[in-house]
Amino acid sequence: MNAFSSSAGAPAVGKVWLVGAGPGDPDLLTLRAARLIMAAKVIVHDGLVDPRIMAMAPASARLISVAKRRSRHTMPQDEINALLVAEALAGRDVLRLKGGDPFIFGRGGEEAEACAAAGVAVEVVPGISAAIGAGAAALLPLTHRDAASVVSFVSGQCKGLSDQNWAGLAGVGRTLVIYMGLAGAERIADKLIADGLSPETPMAVVESAARPDMRVLRGSLAELGAIVDKQRVQSPAIIIIGAVTARADAAAKDQELRQLALEAEQ
Ligand code: SAH
């Protein structure tokens, strides 16, 4: 019996597990996700899943990549939905593995609906979303009693950007986290400034959070586009805007100073 099978014997219809793989580091998987990956027979995964996590799957597992990139959709969403349903109806349990959390900009909702419509049971295993992972890895609290009591997650994908109303999501006491904002970074900054946000608002770009090649780039909102451009920031990266990003600077500096003091003592 593996982690998927029910005690009542092999079901005629398989089940779909929508599993969050977190931001990268395998240690940030939930125990349930790790257990399912290590017992999986069929894994349908997207491009954001860290290779170290894919390496946890059994050698016998069938790995199906449906990698999505902004400009290169290898498999349209309705085909992914159809694939999950077809595998399950053929009696196979399917592990649908996604970066971060399946229900935060992960299209998990669409896949769950498609499965439900076909009579296929779905279970969701949450994962650490990029915003949470980036905040932790960059020592950057998304809320702080002295700096922010509101945090918003938005998608910065260019489509319809000008129609979106982000007024009120950023500014004093608020943290704005932008997923998929790299390509539109300059336009996003311009839009927020036009909506009344100070160009001096501090921000941070966290590239490859919770991965060995993580970079944290800090600056002001006015500098966002230039920083992304000049530093050649690569996907995946998340943009965090608000006073908490400046506090993190101070916290990191404090830690650096304490470390220096400790080394000087030795
Ligand atoms: N479901 C995912 C988000 C998918 S959308 C989650 O909950 O995290 C893809 C976007 O997530 C990327 O464009 C990037 O903005 C962000 N992202 C995912 N992994 C990341 C990482 N390790 N570091 C920084 N940003 C990441």
UniProtKB/TrEMBL annotation:
Entry's EC annotation: 2.1.1.107
Record-linked PROSITE patterns: SUMT_1
Pathway(s) served: Porphyrin-containing compound metabolism; siroheme biosynthesis; precorrin-2 from uroporphyrinogen III: step 1/1
UniProt keyword list: Methyltransferase, Porphyrin biosynthesis, S-adenosyl-L-methionine, Transferase
Molecular function terms, GO-annotated: uroporphyrin-III C-methyltransferase activity
Domain Tetrapyrrole methylase: 15-224
Enzyme class: transferase
GO process terms (BP): methylation
SUPFAM superfamilies assigned: Tetrapyrrole methylase
Recorded family membership: Belongs to the precorrin methyltransferase family.
Protein name: uroporphyrinogen-III C-methyltransferase
Native species: Novosphingobium ovatum
Name of the gene: cobA
